[in-house]
Amino acid sequence: MKRILLAMALLSAVPVFAQKKPKDNTPKSFDLLIGTYTTGESKGIYVYRFYTETGATAYLNEVDGIDNPSYLCVAANNHFVYSVNEVGTERKGSVSSFSFDPKEGRIALLNKQPSTGTGPCYISIDKAQKHVFVANYASGALSVLPIAKDGTLLPVVQTIQDAGTGPNKARQEGPHVHTAVLSPDEKYLLYTDLGTDKLNIYRYKPSQPQPLTPADPSVVKVLGGHGPRHIDFTPDRKFMYLITEMGGVIYVYDYNKGEPKQLEAISIVADGFKGAVGAADIHVSPDGKFLYATNRGDANEIVVFAINPDTGSLTFVERKPSMGKTPRNFVIDPTGNFLLVANQMSDDIYVYKRDKATGKLTLTRNKISVGNPSCLKFTPAE
């Protein structure tokens, strides 16, 4: 008995330590980069600090004298930024590279290269920082530019020129390449052609002199006159979503490892709506539970859908006014707490709080005023 009591006494003397919770390594703040059209009050690219706990923002820096940096991408190392220079059809477009200091938000022009097309409107980059991919809207061509070790852009090494027309004679008189997105595993590049109602699929091999070759199949068609625009994937890579600008329809696909199979198509337009449709951007929430889309034209709204994790199908949740005119682009912060929408024609960016359980949006008091905002990108602040 004494031995048992002694053992119990020894045990009771052993200090008990509370288990430590795993550290949350998600940054509490991010740099928000804003691409713009410089035809109005804007002069170039703006950098703000964004605080994920409150949705507040603080101005950091800007780079001026940049022609229409209407779309941006950020290198994986967080130290380089790339933009299109979306000039009109009267002269060839170009793309620019910038150095970026994520601690201070400083951004500075490095160099510029021709895009070998007109009206470049979209740019993306691979994780290894080997190439950028540029959608030349006006000329209907996709361009590939290598990246040097110092972050500068080298001349175009590959141009893929689309051809064809669509049934909408005003908008589809020729090809109009609108987006260029790498698949999550970066084995494929997918790019939309609004003018020919096609999603084009190419294999990507960065070590090759011309890194893109047609996949098999290489084309996915949507209904004539719908005008495919932007795409996004669920985090588990199972499903892909494509929004059509003129049709105002979201196409749902089983991604199927580079061979997309259509599952359904659902309209973002409200029943009975008679105004102009101008669907723009589309993003899946970081947790993969909800999909958001913007509709410009006369609607000026954000539409929310719930995603079925097993089938990828969409269920309507709500539609919210964008509070401004022409919600061209929007972004969900990496924590999933907030959604920011850029209203191009009313010179403002509004911040919405996201309910992670329901997907619904609540307007906050946070707002950024900047001329003709057209692209929002987050990158970790250091």
TrEMBL record:
Residues 1-18 form the signal peptide. One of its GO terms (molecular function) is 6-phosphogluconolactonase activity. It comes from the Bacteria. InterPro entries: Cycloisomerase_2, Haem_d1_sf, Lactonase_7-beta_prop, WD40/YVTN_repeat-like_dom_sf. GO terms for cellular component: cytosol. Gene3D superfamilies: YVTN repeat-like/Quinoprotein amine dehydrogenase (2.130.10.10). Belongs to the cycloisomerase 2 family. This is 6-phosphogluconolactonase. It comes from Mucilaginibacter yixingensis.
